[in-house]
Specification:
heterodimer, A: 10 residues, little secondary structure, elongated, B: 215 residues, protein transport (chain B), endoplasmic reticulum (chain B), transmembrane (chain B)
């Protein structure tokens, strides 16, 4: 995943 | 991961645990809106579809499982547990929450970052989460007598998205290209919906009197 990805948030 | 996001996740976890504690120990869900709990189950089901396809960390996957498990078990308790279901005030919890689902779905089909199945459902879950608390806030206004655990539940639930806003500011300042307007606006709307509850919650806490919402 890209570093600016917001999907790593819950 | 930053301290704001961790604080947000822990606050969110605490809100769910407070609710599960209330329902499991005193076998009562009085004052709790089933509609809001059902909306949250839909929010997590549509938000965490990527749990099988993309892995970020043990923490991320573990928390997703906890949120999915707790939200669906709360709905199960309130619908099917022989003792708990009797304490659900069905007459008061009458918010037409399906009227929230459809507009959020339509909006997600119109405004999203990518037009893919997962992305549209993920965006839908953001919009739905922003308004999912409405049935609960309406129920609190109606029942007026808010017991401590329900008040704490709503307070923690509102606080978690507040911490997330600080997290988004931090990530915007520290990560280049971290710009997610849809997430930010939905998160801001969600937190603002709690504003009046927070006001009365602090008033009751400051004057050390029972939390009463104006009719």
């Amino acid at each position: 995943p890209k570093d600016d990805d917001v999907k790593d948030e819950l | 991961m930053n301290i704001f996001r961790l604080a947000g996740d822990m606050t969110h976890l605490a809100s769910v645990l407070v609710l599960l504690l209330k329902i499991h120990t005193i076998k009562s869900c009085a004052g709790v809106s089933l509609k809001t709990q059902e909306l949250y189950a839909i929010v997590f089901a549509t938000r965490y579809l990527d749990i099988f396809t993309s892995f970020y960390s043990i923490y991320n996957t573990l928390m997703k499982l906890i949120f999915l498990g707790s939200s669906f078990s709360i709905v199960w308790y309130m619908r099917y547990h022989k003792t708990v279901r009797r304490t659900y005030d069905r007459e008061q919890d009458t918010f037409r929450h399906w009227f929230l689902v459809l507009p959020c779905l339509l909006l997600a089909l119109l405004i999203h970052e990518k037009f893919t199945f997962l992305e549209v459902l993920w965006t839908f879950s953001l919009y739905l989460e922003a308004v999912a608390i409405l049935p609960q806030l309406v129920l609190l206004q109606r029942t007026r007598n808010i017991d401590n655990l329900t008040g704490q539940y709503v307070f923690l639930l509102g606080g978690y998205r507040g911490f997330y806003i600080l997290n988004w500011i931090y990530r915007y300042l520290t990560e280049p290209h971290f710009v997610h307007w849809i997430t930010w606006i939905a998160g801001l709307v969600q937190t603002l919906l709690y504003a009046d509850f927070f006001y009365y919650y602090f008033q009751s806490w400051k004057n050390n009197k029972k939390l009463q919402l104006p009719a």
